[in-house]
Design a protein that fits this description.
This protein is an alpha/beta fold. The chain contains ten helices and 13 strands. A five-stranded mixed β-sheet has the order 1-7-6-4-5, sandwiched between helices. It has a four-stranded mixed β-sheet with strand order 8-13-12-11, with helices on both faces. The chain is globular, with a radius of gyration of 18 Å. The structure holds acetyl coenzyme *A.
């Protein structure tokens, strides 16, 4: 018994903050941000809470999966910007959508969605659950220091969700490799009530190397070759990281899904937002082999191969 993705949903706040807007806040330029990161604009949740964004994305995923909330066995939310210290955002979401079963949050920064999906797959494969709502949601604008040009240009807000269900058919999560190295925590972190701090240049190199290794292992474990991958959906942190990763893996750039120009780095929400858009745009079809990969604070990283 394995698991498959049933339906997806997203929420992106209406407020757009462009690179030109940022030029008025800090000493930066559209040219620097575009060439160094690929980002042109990002969404900012001015009115929307983390819970509201998670709810809209989650309800859309349920609708697209033709799933009633009462059929869910669990709700898992990946976030580094929870609604409250406790209870978990997942418990609050469970109440909002009137879901059953159990609910909890995952803290793995930008790798949070991959960690949550891996766990959902394990719980389904072990028979503990049959249907799980997995959400990645972030309101990073509240943990960004808007006077620090080295970080404030990178991040954005949003939510993405997916319903995962048990599957005996060909659509399955085929492999998953997760890693962390806590000794490297201070390369990227935020204290409680503090702002995101990042050693960007150091992280860049580690990101490419570790995601490449995890991707190779996940592709291998799935019994596939890089040329069998129909779509690469990487965490959207930096266009140069994505390009370098695709090139090292021998996956043509056209097979990489990229939406970083619109949203920046939305941490745990980045992969589910990309998944949803890839499906809507017809870039991802049933039967395709998809490679997901992420790297983030912890440090945490991983890769997953699934037959959609
Ligand atoms: N505008 C203009 N100049 C800037 C800006 C800016 N916004 N930010 C930094 N600079 C300057 C620096 O001060 C530096 O100037 P100096 O040479 O005079 O000292 C110069 O630009 C180069 O800075 P670098 O940090 O070396 O620039 P780099 O090319 O490495 O790009 C970036 C920085 C975009 C942060 C990149 O390193 C990166 O993407 N790193 C990885 C990020 C990542 O993967 N994060 C993972 C997930 S995040 C999570 O888990 C929450």
């Amino acid at each position: 018994m394995g698991s498959r993705l049933l339906g997806t949903g997203i929420y992106l706040p209406g407020d757009v903050l462009t690179n030109n807007d940022l030029e008025k806040l800090v000493d930066t330029s559209d040219e620097w941000i575009t060439t160094r990161t690929g980002i042109k604009e990002r969404r900012i949740a001015k009115e929307e809470s983390v819970l509201q964004m998670a709810k809209i994305a989650g309800e859309e995923a349920l609708k697209n999966s033709e799933t009633d909330p009462s059929d869910l066995d669990a709700v898992v939310v990946a976030t580094l910007t929870p609604e409250k210290r406790f209870p978990s955002t997942a418990c609050l979401l469970q109440a909002e959508i009137s879901a059953k079963g159990f609910a909890f949050d995952i803290s793995a920064a930008c790798s949070g969605f991959l960690y949550a999906l891996d766990l959902a797959d394990s719980m389904i494969s072990s028979g503990k659950a049959n249907k799980i709502l997995v959400v990645g949601v972030e309101r990073l604008s509240e943990v960004v220091d808007w006077s620090d040009r080295s970080t404030c240009v990178l991040f954005g807000d949003g939510a993405g969700a997916v319903v995962v269900e048990s599957s005996e058919g060909p659509s399955q999560i085929l492999s998953s490799k997760l890693y962390s190295d806590g000794k490297l925590w201070d390369i990227l972190y935020a204290d409680c009530d503090g702002f995101i701090k990042m050693k960007g240049r150091e992280l860049f190199k580690i990101a490419v190397r570790s995601m490449e290794e995890a991707c190779r292992e996940a592709i291998d474990e799935a019994g596939l070759n890089p040329r069998d991958i129909d779509l690469l959906i990487p965490h959207q942190a930096n266009l140069r990281i994505i390009r370098s990763l695709a090139q090292k893996l021998g996956i043509p750039e056209e097979k990489a899904f990229i939406n970083i120009e619109k949203y920046g780095n939305t941490s745990a929400a980045s992969i589910p937002i990309a998944l949803h858009e890839a499906i809507k745009e017809g870039r991802l079809r049933r039967g395709d082999n998809v490679l997901l990969t992420a790297m983030g604070g912890g440090l945490t990283w991983g890769a997953m191969v699934l037959k959609y």
